[in-house]
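Section 5: illustrative case.
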């Protein structure tokens, strides 16, 4: 039953120079690329579901973005620290407010430059 749900997952391309560089900067080396590979593998069965699309990107990320309906969680990337050691910011969509839309434009920008996984 299709309820019109759209799920977009944008993962770092584990073979890209940007992922290698970020892994080094975070002090975790190849573990970041390995995390991207295993996440993609875990998501493969879901990718066959209508409305689910997975893409890979090779952009420099300044944050990770997780959107759920009217809420967005933003995990800023702090140079030299893995994502799990950095704060999570929670924004809720409010008509006329700009922060939620600002982060979603950032996601869309990277999404359009990504490629199918």
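Designed sequence:
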């Amino acid at each position: 039953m299709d309820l019109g749900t759209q799920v977009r997952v944008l993962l770092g391309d584990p073979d890209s120079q940007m992922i290698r560089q970020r892994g080094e900067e975070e002090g975790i080396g190849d573990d970041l690329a390995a995390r991207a590979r295993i996440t993609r593998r875990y998501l493969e069965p879901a990718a066959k579901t209508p409305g689910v699309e997975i893409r890979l990107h090779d952009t420099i990320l300044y944050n990770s973005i997780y959107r759920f309906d009217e809420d967005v969680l933003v995990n800023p990337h702090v140079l030299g620290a893995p994502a799990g050691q950095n704060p999570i910011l929670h924004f809720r969509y409010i008509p006329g407010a700009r922060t939620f839309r600002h982060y979603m434009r950032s996601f869309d920008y990277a999404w359009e430059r990504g490629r199918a996984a």
